[in-house]
Amino acid sequence: MAGYGEKTGLVGVGGVGCHIVAQALKRSTIPHVALLIDRDARSLAEYPETMRFLIGQETRPKPFCSATPQWCGRALLDNAEEIGRRVSGSDTIVMVAGLGGATSSGAMPALASLFSSLGIYTAAVVTSPFQFEGKQRERQAQTALADLYQSTDRTIEIPDNALLDMVSHHDTTLGECFSLLDKILVFSIQRNLERMAREEPR
Q: Residue 67: pLDDT band by 50, 70, 90 thresholds?
């Protein structure tokens, strides 16, 4: 079974990132650090307690206002010292997220900057939103992606639309289509993670 380097950290951010990392870890040995970061306590509750990291408790959006990527980035940095402690000893961090939502689009660039400041080789594996998710999520994803290209050592983008095109030609229901899509996505990201983990940091 494939594994990770002795000092490799694996970090999932937001709902999609946490899910993908959790699925990938079922097929690989546990890396030096495995961290699942989200601002949704209920979503995190389904994962092992030792991997959970809840953000956004110190400061919250104004009443009746949705969280923005900017707010989520600040919420992540409010926990910078503790996150730094949790990844202590890692020389490589691979971050995983589905960009477009506020949590991933705001926290991923902030997290990349934090790891870079700690001298850790940082890679990001991200998906971009489906076209039907709307222009706002697409804009948020593209802004975050541009920031990641600037703040990581390597960024790999996997477009959700391209994956959907791969499976939509088969005679499947919509539910089966998304189930197959999930498996392809997990496999694709897992292989990228393992390849990067075998490489020496710059």
A: confident
Cα distances (angstroms) measured from residue 152 to each of 79, 112, 147, 167: 20, 6, 9, 31
What size, in residues, is the chain?
A: 202
> Domain containing 20 — which CATH number?
3.40.50.1440
What is the pLDDT confidence band of residue 177, given thresholds at 50, 70 and 90?
low
State residue 173's pLDDT score: 67
What is the structure's pLDDT at 86?
A: 94
Q: Outline where the chain has alpha helix (H).
A: 14-25, 41-44, 69-77, 80-86, 102-117, 135-151, 160-168, 174-198
What is the domain extent for residue 102? 8-197
Q: Is residue 58 assigned to a domain?
A: yes
Number of H helices, E strands in the chain: 8, 6
Q: Residue 52: pLDDT above 60?
A: yes
